[in-house]
């Protein structure tokens, strides 16, 4: 099965195209809902988005022409309220092109409160004015945004992207400290550099950006989706199987691959992808903490927990990125998994959530036989995890709300079928 461009890069690369004075070409774009949402938002702002010329758009090519960018009707943008987290990243590019932007209510997975205070502070620091209205947030500027010094209290991926997409065309130098350095951010920096930006990534999470007056277009192939790859790898462990993921790449998977090997999973890497397999004997339990890159990514946690229900002994998982990412374990318990969640920081260093009432640590006891059940998908990764559990379980399962899974997994029904699962859309 194949994995294409990363859900957490492609929509941002599409937004970056607004900054160009010429069209951009993005390849390896997956057919997922988050891409459709951004396509709709770009069209509302006058960016012409067309699919590539090859038959069936096999290469997943998008051409994005921003030469006629215009303000959109706030009511129209409101239609996209709750659809994804990407609308907030339109601010910098639209402030540069039009002097104003509007942020509707954001969507994304409900795995914590997900405030946007860092984003708004960043925009204010560049000189933008932020007005909170009943219908959303209006942001405007009367002149060119000014380069600034920003320090993030936590290495937020979105806020780092906010700084990058705003600083590249601001007047003067911007210095960001406490930056996130996820592979998707590095790929966004590569895209911006292709467009003409000057960005240096220094040691200790410091990024420096020299603002330029004009950016051109880019031609870029999106990096592969490391979360989808890890999801299928976890599915291979949970189902005692073997899955070859074409398009998976090793560098951004290194932390995951180490954990996969410690559990007992086997993998083989070739130039086209990675084959993941169950070793054929009992899996090992482990102690694991999610963290910002280069740590173990939070989005890998949910699928991996399902695999850990099949490992012998006690596994301890401490979630340090989101305060509320273990809700999906309720359904796993109903299916027979033995998982207990705790408010305390277990098995790792104390995190931001240690002194609060959030169940952000989990202990998984295995191996347990899972039974099919009726499941309602709570969020993107939780939903995929439930699918894996359903595949590993005895008997039939009914999974409701699968459209949430389309946000980040291209053609997952077709892929499950190709792996031999008996899946029917009711
Ligand atoms: C579309 C996309 O790329 N989503 C990814 C992105 O989300 P996203 O960019 O939303 O995640 P962040 O890195 O910003 O969030 C990390 C932490 O910072 C906090 N925070 C963030 C912003 C802010 O203004 N204030 C604040 O307190 C959040 O509540 C969270 O606890 O990175 C996350 C961390 O790798 C991933 O799980 C998501 O899949
Ligand atoms: C949390 C995720 O995404 P989003 O930020 O789009 O909700 C995810 O991809 O697991």
CATH superfamily of the largest domain: Enolpyruvate transferase domain
Percentage of β-strand residues = 15-25%
Ranges where pLDDT stays below 50 over 5 or more residues in a row are none
Bulk shape: globular
Task: Write the CATH architecture name of the largest domain.
Answer: Alpha-beta prism
Can you tell me the number of structural domains?
A: 2
Radius of gyration based on Cα positions: 22 Å
Bound molecules: uridine-diphosphate-N-acetylglucosamine, phosphoenolpyruvate
Q: How many H/I helices?
A: 13
Helix content: 25-40%
CATH class of the largest domain: Alpha Beta
- The total of beta strands comes to 21
| Ends apart, CA distance between termini | 24 Å
Q: Major sheet: size, sense and barrel closure?
A: 5 strands, mixed
> What is the CATH T-level topology of the largest domain?
UDP-n-acetylglucosamine1-carboxyvinyl-transferase, Chain
Structure classification: alpha/beta
Average pLDDT level? 95
SSE topology:
Blueprint lengths: L9 H7 L7 E4 L5 H12 L3 E4 L10 E4 L8 H5 L12 H8 L1 E4 L13 H9 L3 E5 L2 E5 L8 E3 L5 H11 L5 E5 L5 H13 L2 E4 L4 E5 L8 E3 L4 H13 L3 E5 L7 H10 L2 E5 L2 E5 L5 E2 L2 E3 L8 H11 L2 E8 L10 H6 L3 E5 L18 E6 L7 E3 L3 H13 L5 E3 L11 H7 L8
Parallel strand pairs: 1-11, 7-8, 15-17, 16-17, 20-21
Antiparallel strand pairs: 1-3, 2-3, 4-6, 5-6, 8-10, 9-10, 12-14, 13-14, 17-19, 18-19
Helix pairs in contact: 1-2, 4-6, 5-6, 6-7, 8-10, 8-12, 10-12
The structure holds uridine-diphosphate-N-acetylglucosamine (UD1) and phosphoenolpyruvate.
């Amino acid at each position: 099965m194949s994995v294409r461009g990363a859900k957490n890069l492609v929509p941002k690369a599409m937004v970056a195209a607004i900054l160009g004075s010429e069209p951009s070409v993005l390849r390896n774009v997956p057919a997922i809902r988050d891409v459709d949402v951004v396509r709709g938002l770009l069209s509302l702002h006058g960016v012409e988005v067309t699919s590539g010329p090859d038959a069936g758009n096999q290469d997943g090519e998008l051409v994005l022409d921003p030469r006629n960018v215009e303000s959109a009707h706030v009511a129209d943008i409101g239609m996209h309220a709750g659809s994804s987290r990407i609308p907030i990243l339109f601010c910098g590019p639209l402030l540069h092109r039009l002097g104003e932007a509007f942020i509707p209510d954001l969507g994304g997975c409900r795995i914590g409160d997900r405030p946007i205070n860092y984003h708004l502070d960043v925009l204010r620091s560049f000189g933008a004015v932020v007005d909170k209205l009943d219908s959303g947030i209006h942001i405007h500027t009367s002149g060119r945004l000014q380069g600034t010094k920003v320090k993030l209290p936590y290495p937020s991926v979105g806020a780092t992207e906010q700084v990058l997409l705003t600083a590249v065309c601001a007047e003067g130098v911007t210095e960001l400290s406490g930056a996130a350095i996820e592979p998707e951010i590095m790929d966004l920096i590569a895209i911006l550099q292709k467009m003409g930006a000057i960005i240096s990534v220094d040691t200790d999470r410091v990024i420096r950006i020299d603002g330029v007056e004009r950016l051109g277009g880019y031609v870029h192939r999106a990096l592969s989706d490391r979360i989808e790859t890890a999801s299928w790898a976890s599915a291979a462990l949970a189902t005692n199987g073997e899955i070859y993921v074409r398009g998976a790449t090793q560098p951004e998977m290194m932390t995951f691959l180490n954990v996969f090997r410690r559990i007992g999973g086997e993998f083989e890497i070739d130039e086209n992808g990675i084959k993941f397999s169950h070793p054929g004997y009992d899996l090992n339990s482990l102690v694991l903490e999610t963290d910002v890159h280069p740590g173990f990514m939070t989005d890998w946690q949910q699928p991996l927990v399902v695999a850990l229900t099949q490992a012998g002994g006690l596994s301890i998982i401490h979630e340090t990125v989101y305060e509320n990412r273990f809700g999906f374990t309720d359904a796993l318990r109903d299916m027979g998994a033995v998982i207990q969640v705790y408010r305390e920081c277990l098995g790792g260093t104390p995190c931001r959530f240690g002194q609060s009432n959030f169940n952000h640590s989990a202990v998984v006891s295995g191996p347990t036989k899972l039974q099919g059940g009726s499941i309602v998908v709570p969020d993107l990764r939780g939903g995929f995890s439930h699918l894996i559990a359903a595949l590993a379980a005895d008997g039939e399962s009914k999974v409701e709300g699968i459209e949430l899974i389309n946000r980040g997994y291209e053609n997952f029904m077709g892929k499950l079928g190709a792996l031999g699962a008996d899946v029917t859309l009711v």
